[in-house]
What does this fold into?
Amino acid sequence: MLTARALSLISKRAISTSVCVRAHGSVVKSEDYALPSYVDRRDYPLPDVAHVKQLSASQKALKEKEKADWSSLSRDEKVQLRRIQFNESFAEMNRSTNEWKTVVGLAMFFIGFTALVLIWEKHYVYGPIPHTFDCDWVAKQTK
Amino acid sequence: AYPSQLGLQDASSPIMEELMNFHDHTLMIVFLISSLVLYIITLMLTTKLTHTSTMDAQEVETIWTILPAVILILIALPSLRILYMMDEINNPALTVKTMGHQWYWSYEYTDYEDLCFDSYMVPTSDLKPGELRLLEVDNRVVLPMELPIRMLISSEDVLHSWAVPSLGLKTDAIPGRLNQATISSNRPGLFYGQCSEICGSNHSFMPIVLEMVPLKNFEDWSLSMI
It folds into this structure.
């Protein structure tokens, strides 16, 4: 909205997301971030909406069964009801990843590559070091 | 000095001793603050706890305003003390003048007779075994030790800076201006320094070497140089 207002100051044509979406509305879906949405967040345990909005026929039947005595629900049905409300469990959403291995690996790779570049540079670019670095010269210097 | 040295060179003048102690004091404060900040950062990055609501933090804001001000005062007071100490009256026994050129220093001892000479760096290929590369000069500045000496520093062309770290000296050599420094060495020996203001292609190759000797040796040397 802000973009539309800002750009309409510059040009007469209104160039905004809503216009583009309206043109391609048959194939593209855009989120309205102002509406309540579902989130899997450790610090927001009760999301504003359920995970599944449109219930299938079997899910609708299950919801009807839920209105009766719960002891008649099997374990799988209870899990299915939970999966309608929630996407990931806390254990699932808090799981650790192996991303760090990729990061450390890439870092070490590039450090190693840099080392190769420096070796090449020392051999092909730099001249000899001054003679004052010879062992006996340094021994005479260091009293 | 020694290879891979990290700290300041050993102090050879009273002012440099003061500066070393001040540096220890200030560096300790800096290390404490840095390690505290580093620790807090690691705490922030390694917690699963979150707090997303806006907060009011009057108490801690007061503390982290007052405490840095106190720390700064604790740094400023010794610093100013040393600054004023450098400008104390000290009745120099001798006045020497040095002029910076591109790319060498010239020295003038004109209190009694006219003794002037240039001091060029010894090229690496001409060094005698055991001499220090890029630091040795052909004519050293011989001075009497344990006496306050006035050094007047200026330049004949561009900006240079006359520096001898182990005596705590660094004074800019500015064309058209006379700057004064006081040299006072605790002990005899050779004290090396390098030009400390960029002055062209050979800025790194115009060192300074002070040879501090007993007064008798200094008198003999100056007689031999005239």
Remarks:
- The mean pLDDT of chain A is 87.
- The helical segments of chain A are 2-10, 17-23, 57-66, 75-85, 90-93, 99-124, 135-141.
